[in-house]
Amino acid sequence: MAQQTLTGKTVLVTGGASGLGKAIATKYLSAGANVVICDIHAERINDTIEALSVKGTLRGYTYDIAKLEQVEKLFQEILSEFETLDILVNNAGIMDRFEPVADLDPGLWDRVIDVNLTAPYLLSRLAVQTFLAKEKPGGYILNIASMAGKVGLAAGAAYTASKHGLVGLTKNTSSFYVGKGIRCNALILGGMHTNVTDAFQQGINLEGKQRMMEIMQALRVQTCDVEDVASLCLTLAEGGNSAMLNGALIHVDNGWGSVMG
User: Is 163 annotated as catalytic?
Assistant: First the structure.
């Protein structure tokens, strides 16, 4: 049985009804946290709540986290039931079609930036306001970034720009709130089997995808296990020795990042 290291803590995990988000939510529930998941797929939320609610207190919502008024409603739900928020995991994300800038549809650019960068900003904004309003200010934000936030050919232009932006948001947030009880880190994820590409299986740019695949094959990149990554996410939120990590860009990629530079 997992140790109840997060008893009394309230956690928000976006994209929490499938893939890595669901695995993270499961780990946090097992550690005793009150867990709120937000996902655009209502059916997935219902399935997740049915499967995981026996592990602890779990709530699920389908708000559009790229819209300010929807994020405000989500926080109203959280604060009305749990009074505060302690941990935010900005996990929700969508992939592009591996398109370079000349081929990139403006609508797809807007959607990828909205979900992968604007949403984490809106959520972090209200999370930090909540953290600072506590009698003893404090809280933790974990941003799920990507190798595409460090290099240029791990995805298309939209996804690459969005994850570079998320890295910058992590650095600024962690730097500004040093000494105020708030930490912010990011995982630089390598290959991992999740459903992030589900929405864009059609119309994919084959040249862009092939270039990325050639790099991964040449470097013999091994994918990361979702459950292992989720366990790391729990460790980072528990405090203890991990409380020393603030503003850290943590490569979780089986060494891919050390080769790419």
Answer: yes
